[in-house]
Write a structure and sequence with these properties.
This protein has about 160 residues and is an all-alpha fold. Helices cover about 75% and strands about 0% of the residues.
């Protein structure tokens, strides 16, 4: 019987560097969020389109006006949710950031672009990854500020 050879693997050899872990985590997060916002955007838009298309049919069929009014309410609520939550803008922003992070990952793995000939390519990757994330965060904060400015202020006293 042949002896079983065991190779000793140190923890450092099996662990993924923190920069790569962070990059993978952020790619997964942005991918998940982009897909979620895309789903909400498309569902609410389809609901709006179908509701709007049914209003003339209901009117032509001379059905109860409550049906048309109900569809109008659905349209207003769906469009309000789209505006309030910025699903399309967030979807596109998150997808763009996700793809930029993937681009950095592939350049790093190929040691191409800014990583070619770099003394410490993992440091360059960390800096570029954090820069992309910071840019996206700044855009998000800016959109939230714009969104708040378009909404009426909330006061503690009811309007009369």
């Amino acid at each position: 019987m042949l002896p079983i050879q065991s190779s000793v693997v140190t923890p450092l050899q099996t662990e993924t560097p923190p920069t790569i872990q962070r990059l993978e985590d952020q790619i997964a997060w942005y991918d998940r969020k982009a897909a979620g916002h895309q789903g909400w955007y498309k569902r609410l838009k389809v609901l709006t389109i179908v509701s709007a298309a049914l209003i003339p049919v209901i009117s032509a069929a001379k059905w109860d006006a409550l049906y048309s009014a109900g569809l109008g309410i659905i349209i207003v609520i769906a469009e309000g949710m789209l505006q309030l939550n910025q699903f399309q803008t967030n979807w596109l922003t998150y997808r763009s950031t996700c793809e930029a992070l993937k681009h950095e990952k592939y350049l790093y793995l190929a040691q191409a672009g800014p990583y070619a000939g770099a003394d410490k390519p993992v440091v360059v990757l960390a800096e570029r990854t954090e820069s992309l994330i910071s840019q996206e965060h700044a855009k998000w904060v800016s959109l939230q500020d714009q969104s708040r400015k378009t909404l009426p202020p909330i006061t503690s006293e009811p309007r009369v």
